[in-house]
Amino acid sequence: MPFRSDHLPHFKTLASIRPPRVTRVLAWMLMLGIVGSILFMLLVPWVQTAPGAGAVIALDPRDRVQNITALVPGRIEQWYVTDGSIVRRGDPIARVSDNDPNLLDRLRAERAQADAEIAAAQQAMRVAQMDVARMQSLYREGLSPRRDYELAQIKVSDYEAKVAQARADRTRIDVSLNRQSVQMIRAPRDGRILRIQGGDNATMVSAGDVVATFAPEESQRVVELYVDGRDVPLIRPGRRVRLEFEGWPAIQFSGWPSVAQGMFDGRVRAIDVSASTNGLFRVLVEAAPDRPAWPREPYVRLGAKVRGWVLMDTVSVGFELWRQLNDFPLQFQRPGDAADTATMNMTDAK
């Protein structure tokens, strides 16, 4: 038989039990909180992100930090810069002198000798050519045997070979002279000397040895982010990226880009087709042309660390929570739907 309220007088102990007011209020609060949490997870949107970390680099390889090497073997005779020096294109950095101080004089003397040998061989060849013409005329008139005519032609060929050999020797000497004349190491571009790695007069350097580290100025900067391979298949060029630069105060809300503060916008430029040595995939991010520019030097320098979040599809908070608990990959949408989602992400980021 079901229990009715008119039975309470028969159960005096049960009727005397009254829940405290605080308990009833707490129960209502818990019920409202549960209902509110369910509605929050079902109705509130959440922008999924593919996180990554990386650094600021120069897009053009010529604008990246590079080593300046010695062009000829020898010893550092004089330095024209120090660590941190600002240089312009063509400014001298160091002068390298050969171990033999008389090497250039000997090379010039050898070149003069090669020029004299070429002139002598050319003069002898011209005389031999005149002999060939004379022997040809005598041979046609029957006054000279054919053998003399052929010997004159062979002599001309010998002199031509001597001229070619002398010119080759002069070319070799010119190459040595040019190499030795490039004893002045100069700055390849406008930039700054980061570190001097050479020594003094007692230190020997070989051709190709690093003598200084150089960083160009006014480079086009991009960010390289290393993203997990699970998220890379869903990332495409043109995706929006939120960036947090090292040393720049920022507050990041992954799922709500419009709430974040101190963040900067980027756009996916390219994605590597193979993984890097760390097992992650590199994603190149350029500055978004329709958003505020990135901080310039000295606030954000080349090599500064960066954290980034590639904005993906928009889902509900409950779906994202379920995905995170089950360690599932990001939500996938068809290309047509992805364009609409990207438009909505751009609107949210504003």
TrEMBL record:
Could you tell me the keywords of this UniProt record? Coiled coil, Membrane, Transmembrane, Transmembrane helix
Q: Taxonomically, which superkingdom?
A: Bacteria
* Coiled-coil regions, chain positions: 104-169
Membrane-crossing segments per the record: 25-47
Keyword Protease appears in the UniProt entry: no
Q: Does the keyword Transcription apply?
A: no
Q: What is this protein called?
A: HlyD family efflux transporter periplasmic adaptor subunit
Recite the lineage of the species: Bacteria, Pseudomonadati, Pseudomonadota, Alphaproteobacteria, Sphingomonadales
